[in-house]
Every structure is written in C-alpha cells, then in structure tokens.
Design a protein that fits this description.
With about 210 residues, the protein is α/β, with parallel strands linked by helices. The protein is about 55% helix and about 10% strand. The protein has 10 helices and 5 strands; from the N terminus they run βαβαααααβαβααβα.
C-alpha cells in the first residue's frame, strides 16, 4: 500500500505521515528532507542556490542514508529547499529515488508537494493536508522559537508568516511539479484540528481507500 500525502509547509502533513506509517508498519519518507539535503549542501559549500547545474549534480549523487533530519529542519534549510526544489532538473534527478522508495515491497508512506501527482500517481490513498497561512505560520513560529532559532516577538512571527507566504507562492507557481491537489486526493483542513483529530480524519480516509 502506498500512501501519498501532499500539502504546503507546516500544514501537519509530516506529523500525519509519521503517525500513519507507524500505524500500518510502513517505512516513511519525508521527501522535503531530500530537497533540504540538496539545499543544505549547496549552502555549506558556498554554492549559489540558483546554480541549477551544481544543484542537479548534488541531487544525482544524494544518498538517503546521509540525511540528518535534525540538521535539516532549520529555517535556513527550509528556505534553501524551496529554492532548489523549483529547479526542474533537480526534481527530475530525485524522482527515481523517491519512486524506488514508494514502490518497495509492502509499500510506504511519503509526504511532500508532488507525491500524489508525480511521484506516486497510482497510490492507493492520497491525502492533501492544508491549513490557513496564519495557522501554519503560528505552528512554524512555535517550532522555531522552541529551537532557539528566532525570538518570541511580533516581528519574529511576521517574518515567519512572510516566509510561509513566499514559499506557498514559489511551490504553487513553479513550472516543474507545482503544488497541486491530485484529482483523487481527499483534502483535510487542519486549521482547527488537534493532532488526534487530524490523525483520525486521515486514518478514516486511508481505511476507506483500503476497503
């Protein structure tokens, strides 16, 4: 069984993907980490994020085993990921890696921006997780404050909201695999939902598709 979960930044898709993977005993891949990995390497080595050729070479040689989730969940890594993910050749280089993970024996749960539309269009269950930009900014703001990356101030929140809106525009407007709701995906708006409520809704969708 392949479960494809898409949605914008900080919508809760990663949390739900992990919960569903644990529930069904399936491997989970946060595909955003792949792009964060490429962006992180670009930044660490001093390469301009708009250098498509270098970013593509890094993507072609990326090893999932080398990804450090904790180091890749920073604000800077997220911004770098959004830039390199807009490069068509980078996305093309990473498609096979993601599809191989999705089609492994027994299935998998993947979350990202183009799982149900590009990576696993034949997935048995597809979910599109969303929430208002303000709520997603609040979630990201609390996360970043908790990690000590930014200060708990109105200006800090305004910066996070601006970043969320900028990433939304970039993800939805890029030419290569833009963020879209798959025609057969079920949309879950988590703006007013707690984690348990959102998980129950997601689980109900997957169970219905399994039946």
């Amino acid at each position: 069984m392949i479960v494809a979960i898409d949605g914008p930044a900080a919508s809760g898709k990663g949390t739900l993907a992990k919960r569903l993977a644990a529930h069904y005993g399936l491997p989970h891949l946060d595909t955003g980490l792949i792009y964060r990995g490429v962006g992180r390497i670009m930044v660490d080595r001093g390469f301009p994020l708009d250098n498509v050729e270098i970013a593509t070479t890094i993507a072609e040689n990326l090893d999932l085993a080398d990804l450090d989730p904790e180091r890749l969940r920073t604000k800077d890594a997220g911004e770098a990921a959004s830039v390199v993910a807009a490069h068509g050749p980078v996305r093309k280089a990473l498609i096979d890696l993601q599809r191989a993970f999705a089609t492994q024996a027994g299935g998998a749960v993947l979350d990202g921006r183009d799982i149900g539309t590009v990576i696993a269009p034949d997935a048995e269950a597809k979910l599109f997780i969303t929430a208002s930009a303000e709520e997603r900014a609040r979630r990201r703001f609390r996360e970043l404050v908790g990690r000590g990356e930014i200060t708990d101030t109105p200006a800090g929140f305004a910066d996070v909201l601006a970043d969320i809106l900028k990433r939304d525009a970039r993800d939805s407007g890029r030419a290569a695999a833009p963020l879209l709701v798959a025609a057969d995906a079920v949309t879950i708006d988590t703006t007013a939902l707690g984690i348990e409520e959102a998980f129950a809704a997601a689980l109900a969708v997957v169970e219905a598709r399994r039946r």
